[in-house]
Amino acid sequence: MDFDASDWMHRPKGGIEVVCGSMFSGKTEELIRRLKRAGFAHQKIEIFKPAIDVRYDTVRVVSHDEKAVNSTPVQTASEILLHVSDAEVVGIDEAQFFGEDLAEVCTLLANRGIRVIIAGLDMDFEGKPFGPMPQLMAIAESVTKVHAVCVKCGNPAQFSHRFSGSKNLVQLGETDSYEPLCRRCYLEATGQTEKE
Ligand SMILES: [Zn+2]
User: Domain range holding 31?
Assistant: First the structure.
């Protein structure tokens, strides 16, 4: 089974945790849960998301003194380095929209002793690895894959099936155009089932 992030989170060493899955899998909720726990432990938190993600303010974390911590939108991964200041824990949401240099940035932060928690879509709507996510999963201490529920059969779902006409990947944030599907239902919905 997967590595329990809590085993090492209290050590002041730094590291990388990835929470990934399809849309509606609860990635951001898991990110927030981990950040809240760190906040209750009086650790200083900074949260970042790509400036491209303008859907809604998903990442709001209530710190120990009841103050909500908002995420900082950044244009590029390297911009995160400019804003980190004295953070002990760095959360990154919608990581799939960053460039592949995000892995390098996260390594720098972790080597500096910062706990980096990343949430993102592991696959795009075509079922292909999304942006920097494969690299991040490779270099992380801990990878947690969370699942949605298949809207067709109720099994665990890992695919984000697009059923609108647009080819724009960025539209992956719009909840009305995507549905979570399991492998079998995804293959059926995209006409990829093998003839028997
Ligand atoms: Zn299904």
Answer: 5-146
